[in-house]
Write a structure and sequence with these properties.
- The structure is a single chain.
- By secondary structure, this protein is mainly alpha-helical.
- It is built from five helices and no strands.
- Helix content is 32%, strand content 0%.
- The protein starts with a helix and ends in a 12-residue tail after the last helix.
Length: 98
């Protein structure tokens, strides 16, 4: 599928060497418009965290997350992959530069 929208106008990312893994500095700060919003509920975050085997209390326990300064539980960074499948049109999955 050809890349559309903003992603189609971006230059390719290039890795910056010097650490344990390449850091793609050209990719930092990229954003992708989405056609819709979706609600994320606490139980969805909890279920996802348990499914990937991450017992971080900030993902599972509202009180623990609040004690750390968050308003509610937070989602694991990999939770965004679930949104990538929903908004695949102009998202990072269709960005040929990544």
């Amino acid at each position: 599928m050809p890349c559309r929208g903003i992603a189609a106008r971006r230059p390719p990312c290039r890795p910056q060497e010097g650490g344990p893994a390449p850091l793609w500095l050209d990719c930092v700060g990229r954003s992708y418009p989405v056609p819709d919003t979706c609600g994320v509920v606490r139980e969805g975050i909890r279920s996802f965290a348990l499914a990937i085997g991450d017992p971080n209390p900030f993902y599972l326990d509202r009180a623990a997350a609040q004690a750390a300064g968050y308003a509610d539980v937070i989602a694991p960074p990999t939770f965004l992959t679930t949104l990538g499948f929903r908004f695949r049109g102009d998202g990072p999955m269709s960005d040929p530069a990544l």
